[in-house]
Design brief:
By secondary structure, this protein is mainly beta. It has one domain: AttH-like fold (Beta Barrel). It contains 2 helices and 24 strands. The strands form 2 sheets. Strands 1, 2, 3, 4, 5, 6, 7, 8, 9, 10, 11, 12, 13 and 14 form a 14-stranded antiparallel beta sheet that branches. Strands 15, 16, 17, 18, 19, 20, 21, 22, 23 and 24 form a 10-stranded antiparallel beta sheet that branches. The two termini are about 20 Å apart.
Length: about 400
């Protein structure tokens, strides 16, 4: 929401924080942990963890603000949580197609004025980082998720605004300001795992999009749960993917979300469905649905439509519909996800049918969620339209 975020951000990290807080506050957390995403028992339901966070001592998002660049690409330690989130769809000359995710989260185990981090150690810190990466091999029908955890100390993991860099060991995203628009970045991401390697250059095609009300994105109607949120919705992407000994030169499009916050899910919310599409007519669309425990759509759900020139408009919960058509059940976790959707935005005379490129794109690490590459097709003003995108689904299945 990404996720984790979009709602891409409050995504996953606060669940990891329940583990890290108990170890990291006293400086005994290991330097870093990396593993493929494999099924592990959850210690609590998503809604209980996100709804129980103590926000005392942290800054809170309470309304719109003026963004400051390049500073806002860097860390905001006065807030509990933030995230840098990339997804994309790329293709090689031989027609091999891949989806990818690269997300890095920062979260604090204690407020800025807490004495917890005042230990005399190079590894002492109140900042912890989690990274999720994944590659979807469309032709091979394969999905490779990985996750990594690190403390934000001793250059193991961290984030800088100038020069822009965010990293967890050898997984990194870095860049420099672009003359294309205010706040835009030309970036590069490099990831290497036991299963795959990817390296991409990313150039903005459109100006920044400020999500919600001038970048103030509410997750609950009362605004007590909110984030500062902006996006680069269309990044021209070039680079390579390597799986085993096979290397593919690729190009395509990516989506970048940037959010920071302190608040969490509302008490009545169980999860979210998040969608981000790049259509071939030049339109970009983001929608998210906050789901209540009773299955209803929270009125705080929202979205944004970005036209070919980068002009954008907010979409409220009553201006779109999400209709799940078919479900997929995970063999690893038994969670059941709605993977095929029909989306309608009546005010834009837009109807989209959304299908995953591979059904099994489920992260099954510290806790489970579905995040994967999709294809979209439909009509706009009764004319055919197609595109690519990413979907994130959380809060499905029993804890």
């Amino acid at each position: 929401m990404s996720s984790v975020a979009s709602i891409s951000g409050i995504r996953l990290w606060l669940i990891a924080l329940t583990v890290l807080t108990g170890l990291g506050a006293f400086g005994v957390f290991v330097n870093s942990v990396e593993s493929p995403s494999v099924a592990t028992p959850a210690t609590a339901g998503l809604e209980s963890v996100l709804g129980a966070t103590d926000d005392t001592g942290f800054a809170r998002v309470s309304g719109p603000r003026d963004f400051i660049f390049p500073a806002d690409h860097g860390p905001h330690p006065n807030f509990r949580t933030e995230w840098w989130y990339l997804t994309g769809n790329v293709e090689s000359l031989d027609g091999s197609r891949f989806g990818y995710q690269m997300t890095i989260f920062r979260s604090a185990t204690a407020p800025p004025d807490s004495p917890v981090a005042a230990l005399e150690s190079d590894l002492a810190t109140r900042q912890y980082y989690m990274a999720h990466v994944a590659l979807t091999d469309v032709r091979g029908g394969r999905y490779f998720p990985h996750e990594k955890f690190s403390r934000g100390a001793a250059n193991i993991a961290g984030a800088w605004a100038t020069p822009f860099r965010v990293w967890v060991e050898n997984w990194r995203l870095e860049g420099q300001p672009s003359d294309a628009c205010e706040g835009c970045m030309v970036m590069r991401t490099d990831v290497k795992t036991d299963d795959f390697t990817f390296s991409f250059g990313l150039k903005p095609v459109k100006p920044l999009t400020l999500q919600g009300d001038r970048g103030y994105s509410k997750k609950t109607v009362d605004g007590k749960n909110a984030s500062h949120y902006f996006s680069m919705t269309r990044l021209a992407t070039t680079g390579f993917v390597r799986i085993n000994d096979d290397r593919y030169e690729v190009q395509g499009t990516s989506w970048f979300d940037r959010e920071w916050s302190t608040s969490s899910l509302g008490a009545s919310q169980v999860g979210w469905d998040w969608f981000a599409f790049q259509l071939e007519d030049g339109t970009d669309l983001m929608l998210y649905r906050m789901r209540g425990k009773d299955g209803t759509t929270d009125p705080a759900s929202a979205g944004t439509l970005v036209d070919e020139d980068g002009q954008y408009q907010a979409i409220s919960a009553d201006e779109f519909t999400l209709e799940p058509l078919t479900r997929w059940k995970s063999r690893d976790t038994a969670a059941s996800y709605p993977l095929v959707w029909r989306i309608r935005v009546p005010g834009e005379n837009l109807v989209l049918n959304v299908k995953p490129v591979v059904d099994a794109q489920e992260h099954t690490g510290l806790f489970r969620y579905w995040e994967g590459a999709v294809r979209v097709e439909g009509t706009r003003d009764d004319q055919p339209v197609t595109g690519v995108g990413y979907v994130e689904l959380t809060g499905y299945g029993a804890p």
